[in-house]
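Thread: "does anyone have the structure for this chain?"

Original post by V.I.:
We have the sequence but no experimental structure in hand. Need at least a predicted one for the grant figures.
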Amino acid sequence: MTARVLVIDDDRDHAESIADILSMRGHRVEAAFSGEQGVEIFRRQDFDIVFMDVKLPGMNGVETFFEFKKIRPGARVMMMTGFSLEQLITQAIEHGALGVLRKPFAIQDLLHVLDQIKPRGMVLVADDDPDFAASLEPVLTQQGYRVVIASTGEEALAKASADGVDCLVLDLAMPLLTGIDVYRKLKAAGKELPTIFVTGLPGERVHAMSELHPDGGVLMKPFDPSELLRAIASATATVAGKNAA
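Reply from O.Q.:
Generated one for you, tokens below.
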């Protein structure tokens, strides 16, 4: 498992030491030495986990964590500290931080945290209803997925054809190029991705299920967000099993 990791610590030696250790184990690591620098990097890139010192000059670690949550509600952050800063640590954990590593900590403790996280892939949501697509984004990001949104079938096809997309959520009734059209064109190009179709029309659901047999099935709008999460997990697991066979 390769994780994308951001390490933030004003102790440059400590930050670079962690980065070197994780890089040698195959992880992709960025380092920042202030909260402000960390926010700048976090805006540009998505990470599976952030290791962040609590006591930073300027914007402290908890304030930085709150900024991360504004950028991506599903941000996963493990705090680090060598000081007794219980009030700050409590604030961070109450707002969703994973926990705290007390300095000095063993390398095994660091690696154990990485073992517990499961980097999730990128989901492309394609729907001509912008409100519907936007409503799915926080549901997915809170579960650790990265999200790309397309408002037309043409845009969905272009984005899905590029590398990096791991699962498709396609509206069946997009104008001009429908979700089924996108699915077929990708399949003809040799790019088969785990796919969940969504629709508000029962007839479309029956047609898609009978003709395409999508890995994640067809969800009828409106649906419970937990149904989508289960469908994505099922679809990605099904395709992973086929590829491993």
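V.I.: this helps a lot. The CA atoms of residues 74 and 141 lie 5 Å apart.
O.Q.: and Strands lie at 4-8, 28-32, 49-53, 77-81, 99-102, 122-126, 146-150, 165-171, 195-199, 218-220.
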